[in-house]
Amino acid sequence: MLGTAFATVRRCGRGAKIGPLVADSIDDASALLMAIAAAFPADPFIIDVPDDQPELTALCKGWGMQASFNTARMYRGPAPEPGPGIRSIATLELG
C-alpha cells in the first residue's frame, strides 16, 4: 500500500523536469517515478536530488540515470537536519 507521495512534472528544453518530489518512503518515490516515466515514455527526465537523499540517488542510478552537474547548498548558521521522507529539489532555476 502506498503512503503519501506527490510530484510535479513539466516539460523542459529536453524532456521533462521532476520537482518537487515528496514521498513517505523510497518505495513510494519509486512508484511515483515509474508512473511519471510511463506518462512520458519517449522523454528523458531530469530530477535534482539533494545530497541528504542517498536512497533516491541510488534509485535513480539504478535506473541508469547519471549526474550531469553538482551544486553546493550553503547555509547561514548550522544546516538543518533532514526531515523524514524522500525529497527532490523543486527547482534550481528559481534559486
Summarize the structure in short.
The protein is an alpha+beta fold and 95 residues long. The chain has two helices and four strands.
What is the topological layout?
Blueprint: E1 5-11, E2 16-23, H1 26-39, E3 45-47, H2 54-62, E4 86-87
Parallel strand pairs: 2-3
Antiparallel strand pairs: 1-2, 2-4
Explain this structure.
The protein is an alpha+beta fold and 95 residues long. The protein is 24% helix and 21% strand. It has two helices and four strands. Strands 1, 2, 3 and 4 form a four-stranded mixed sheet that branches. The longest helix has 14 residues.
Poorly predicted segments = none
Main pleated-sheet profile: 4 strands, mixed
The outline comes out as: globular
SSE ordering:
EEHEHE
Average of pLDDT: 84
Q: Structural class, from secondary structure content? A: alpha+beta
Number of helices: 2
Approximately what portion of the residues adopt beta-strand conformation?
A: 15-25%
Distance from N terminus to C terminus (CA atoms, Å) equals 35 Å
Q: Cα-atom Rg, whole angstroms? A: 13 Å
Please bin the fraction of helical residues: 10-25%
Characteristic terms for this protein:
2 helices; 4 strands; 4-stranded mixed beta sheet; 95 residues; alpha+beta
